[in-house]
Write a structure and sequence with these properties.
Blueprint: E1 2-3, E2 9-10, E3 13-14, H1 72-75, H2 90-104, H3 116-138, E4 160-164, E5 170-173, E6 177-182, E7 190-194, E8 198-202, E9 210-211, E10 221-227, E11 230-239, E12 249-257, E13 264-269, E14 272-275, E15 282-285, E16 290-297, E17 305-311, E18 332-335, E19 348-350, E20 370-374, E21 377-385, E22 395-400, E23 411-416, E24 422-429, E25 432-439, E26 456-461, E27 491-494, E28 497-504, E29 515-518, E30 526-527, E31 536-541, E32 547-552, E33 555-560, E34 570-571, E35 582-587, E36 595-599, E37 603-607, E38 614-618, E39 625-627, E40 639-642, E41 651-656, E42 670-673, E43 679-682, E44 688-692, E45 707-709, E46 717-720, E47 724-727, E48 735-736, E49 746-747, E50 752-753, E51 756-761, E52 769-773, E53 778-781, E54 789-790, E55 808-813, E56 821-825, E57 835-838, H4 841-844, E58 854-856, E59 866-871, E60 879-883, E61 887-890
Length: 896
Amino acid sequence: MFALPVTSLQEKEPRMKPTTIVISLVLGLLTLSLLGGFGSSAASDSRGLPAAAASDESASEQATPTGQSQSDDEAGVDADLGKIGRKIDRETYLRLRDEYVARRRGIEPGRPFDPGARGRAIEQMERQEKGRLIESILNGGAPPPEGVDAAWAAIGPVTIPNGQALNNANIAVTGRVTSIAVDPTNASKVYLGTAQGGVWRSLDGGTTWTSIFDDAQTMAVGALALAPSDPTKLYVGTGEFNACGDCFFGVGLYRIDNVDTAPTLVGPINPSITTGSGSGARTYNIFTGRGITKIVVDPTNAATIFVSTGRGISGSGANSLGLVPNIAIRGLFRSTNATSDASSVTFQKLIVTTDNSPDSPGTGNVDTPEIVMEPGNANNLLVTVIGPTVNDTNGGIYRTTNALAATPTFAQVLSTATGVRTQLAINKVATIVTAYAATSETPSSTPGCTSGGSGAVRKQIDPFNLSATWSTQLTGGGGFCDGQCDYDMPIAVNPNDPNEIYLGGNARSSCSDGMKKSTNGGLSFSRDDNGLHADSHALAYDGAGTTIFTGNDGGVWKRSSSGNAGSAWTNLNRASLNTLQFQGIAVHPLDRNLMIGGTQDNGTEYQQTSSGNWRNAEGGDGGYALIDQSATNTTNVTMYHTFFNSSGEQIGFDRIINTVCLPSKDSWPTRGAFGGSNDLGTACDGTANYLQNGININDNVLFYAPMALGPGAPNTLYFGTDRLYRSTDRGDTMTVASQAPISSAMCGGLGAPCPISTMAIWPQGDNVRMVGLGSGQIWATSTGSSTLVNITNASFPANPNGSTNKFVGRAVIDPNNKNVAYVAFSFYAPAGQGIWKITNLVAASGTSPAAPIWSASGNGIPSIPINALVIDPANSNVLYAGTDIGVYSSTDGGAN
């Protein structure tokens, strides 16, 4: 039976206690292995044939495909895209990545999804934790039951010192920052909301950081707000609204009391309300399945708050209120007793628009990404909504001047097209109120640039004047977010200077920049991203308007707000800030301090010599990582990591055979199918820069394709598309080791044969192999045959959120018994049925296959996606399973 270890973990990060932070997790998209395992996602928005890789970390340009020479501005370089090539359309790249991550959660694009499933799993996990505590007390303080291990130990990295920046510099980076709050009375007190990393506090302006959200039910944070009248109270909105595959919905609202001294966590706050009446009434918990997009607090009353919500299902809009029970209706909510006990806080839904209402009379059901309040006047609000349907004119900006009334009234003051997102900034100098809107509209003009893209800026003086109408688009800022406005488009205006505006975007292109600044009220903007990471999400001024803070996919920075555009920002990614999102990890067989791992938007990292000493090896999004387990020393060792994969574009990996390459950033040679011809020039490890190795570029492949090692010296290498590839020469050549494709059945939603989602190779014999597909099928061989046997069990559970998506998240073969293997499903399988065990693998996948003998072996694990599974090589009865909510262990092979 599976049991929780000493601490449960949330999403892809553990609860962020200094003694329990661990980066080699088996959570979220991670895959843990005691034998130097590998992760389960990678991303690098790059393809094409690489030139000889530069090893100088201070190089001013990154490698481009052979025969090409482009400046950053010409190429539209995004530091997150990696070194190989950057031709893929960014929107397509993000969509494909989101679809992959959604499938790993059991979500099928366009199909309804029950967001309450994760909450129910957390509740079951908490009951398990309480049960163990009670049992310990009843036993007179005896140790917890077997299966509960010692505390996790932090091994870093707290930051990566040579991370990637928009100007190709090497800077300290950490994980994605989604929101920032600065104490209006003391600029030294700064709070960060992060993606899957919780909430962090600095009392010295960003020099040191402390986690203050350890015991929350989720680490996904979307919004922060301090109460102006009492800045010891911090409101935290969970769930991230940004459109990305790992932007997860939250569990509601939290309040942290005494946030600057002795933080006390109150929540989650997620009350039930009923809207509509009679047969049109709907009852729901207001934040269930949603992301909190913004919180504003009455400047004179900390108990009165306004909260807006939007979709938040792994970045997917796949929801249907008629089919999904009790999912929250989106929109704007108000509480007048938010300082009460969590169970006593109440909310009222305010009707901004009745568009898309599932209740009747309708209260509206629209993504509401933004709220701003006139400084000093809680009655005056501007709210933005996204028009949800085709030819919808109800999106745009709404205004109210009686927000504190029993039933506030709203008027639309700017209508935008369907799907347009709008973010706002506001200031008040004397009696003059000025508001700015950053929108994802197609710009009417893009002076000084040619790439177009999306993003426009508007301005309105005195926006609460009932006769005021919003201006046409300003001449400056056109195309600032370049097709990625649904992910990164913050805007801020200096509280004391209406002409000073900061505008965040994604990366450098002809029109877009990571950050822009205007000093003339938006008539023109200048690039201002020197030393910043790509993908801006948050901007916040201090109360005096003298310092500006910004957060992006690489962490947090600040600068004097009056600094000239292009001047350096101060990097605040200090040693105590631990928010990197690891996607994969691998460990050397002889030296546990020698590790590599891929991180979200921060490349592939490595550690040598001592624990915590991490650096960046290659840029881009990092994912699968492998270290050859036959290595006899720490110098002559083969390592692999993957980039993103896309049929017809690029499929493959990077590889080095000597650790001399590790300090030479972005220098690993490449193997796979990337177009172009071989580059036989010598790479850092003395091998060819680039080889087409036999992988077919037209195979159907997962965005993050799986990769695994077998036995041998060097280890055999396996790579999965819709067929299994095998190599005996470290990936220089790869041959098909299965049917091509394995299954000809079309994979649901893909319109092509299902690709491999996971694979397992017996470490004592290369002939025993097993693969799982995204359809839930299991295929294997025990003879090394290239004709795999379908050993799928008819009793495998169905996915309640999709009939065709039964994603197999992990497969493992007992290192001590080739007859025994396990598979784990990455969807909401019924409790106890997420892991299955086969006990006759050799016979079932031999020349004359016997009927496979399977049994459910996940007893104790709630209904939750399982992403990782490992068997202790010293004791085959000990298993560890990594889920979306924690790590579980079993000492009896998962049996009852």
